[in-house]
Amino acid sequence: MNELIETAWRLDRLRWVPTDVLGDIVMDQGACMDAYAAGEQPDWLGLEQTDRELAARLCAGCPVKDQCLEFELRTAGEDTVGVWGALDQDDRRALLPYWRQRGERAEEVGQ
Question: Whole-prediction pTM value?
Fold first, then answer.
């Protein structure tokens, strides 16, 4: 649980970054996007692995893991699926209540 709280605190630095900017950052700089950039299927795609294993492999060394995670929490919330921000969907769902407790985000102002 402490790891989830620490992650929620770490994401605070992104709370005022607009969601569309976060999406652009992930699309432009995400390590997972490089895997598809060449137009070929990544070699890890056909492997039997859990989402946690895929997250560890896919997101290792990604420079925008936090932006990816913040983006997915904002846009999908409890409906999150797959791998985002180096976490699988179960881990993100467990993180969500701690993340929500951290306060409002950029698009929530004035709503």
Answer: 0.85
